[in-house]
Amino acid sequence: MTEGRIPVVAETVAGETMRRVVYPGSFDPVTNGHLDLIVRAARLHDEVFVVVGANLAKEGLFSVDERLAMLREVTRGQPNVRVDKFRGLLVEFCQTHHISAIVKGLRAVSDFEYEMEMAQMNYRLAEIETLFMTANPLYAFLRSSLVKEIARYGGDVSSLVPAPVFAQLQKRLAAG
Ligand code: ADP
């Protein structure tokens, strides 16, 4: 990083600078909490890239392609939301796609310490900003791993995930 250098990450379309952000996560699967954040971020920016981190070979309940398909289905009504995956460094994905900021959701103080460290590292690496949005209190308790655990034991998660995700969860868990 050169001190004082302003990175060129924003793309100009018809003379206007695109306010383009990325919302990264594992989305295994996407929940109503994620979706709430995606819709709110899409109101504030020209384009939101929702990206699934495909770095870790770590087995999820759903494959990366299945997560992408569910994300695409539930964001179909959002014309300025794009769904993609990334490998390697998120800041490199940002530079390649002319994205100037990362959006993260904060559910509780416990999210803060890790997110703060990541935000500072991403700024140090490539001068990519991180914007924090507070979770909708309706969904502040929600995380994908908890949804999967409850569903596995037969709990009703129909109000916690979008309908197509609920259908996929039932199918996957029934299949064992
Ligand atoms: P999870 O913690 O549900 O497995 P991810 O790792 O996919 O989710 O999280 C991706 C991003 O979404 C993180 O910034 C996380 O803080 C945010 N996030 C997750 N759940 C919620 C929620 N219920 N409300 C707001 N933001 C959330």
Structural descriptors:
binds adenosine-5'-diphosphate, two-stranded antiparallel ribbon, alpha/beta, 6 helices, 5-stranded parallel beta sheet, globular, about 180 residues
Could you characterize the architecture of this molecule?
It is built from 6 helices and 7 strands. The chain is of the alpha/beta class. It has a 5-stranded parallel beta sheet, sandwiched between helices. A two-stranded antiparallel ribbon has the order 1-2. Helix 2 links the parallel strand 4 (47-53) and strand 5. The longest helix has 18 residues, at 109-126. 31% of the residues are buried. Bound molecules: adenosine-5'-diphosphate. Residues 25-27, 31, 33-34, 37, 104-105, 107, 111, 135, 139, 142-145 line the site of adenosine-5'-diphosphate.
List the helices and strands and how they pair.
Blueprint lengths: L11 E2 L2 E2 L2 E6 L6 H13 L2 E7 L10 H11 L6 E6 L3 H7 L4 E6 L2 H18 L2 E6 L9 H9 L10 H12 L2
Parallel strand pairs: 3-4, 3-6, 4-5, 6-7
Antiparallel strand pairs: 1-2
Adenosine-5'-diphosphate binds next to α1, β6 and α5.
Helix-strand sequence:
EEEHEHEHEHEHH
Task: Using the alpha-carbon principal axes, give the shape.
Answer: globular
Number of strands: 7
The average pLDDT is 92
What characterizes the major β-sheet? 5 strands, parallel
Which percent band covers the strand fraction? Answer: 15-25%
- The largest beta-sheet arranges its strands as 5-4-3-6-7
The helical percent reads 25-40%
Low confidence ranges: none
The small-molecule ligands in this entry are: adenosine-5'-diphosphate
Structure annotation, total helices: 6
Structural class designation: alpha/beta
Rg (C-alpha, Å): 17 Å
Q: Terminal Cα separation, in Å?
A: 49 Å
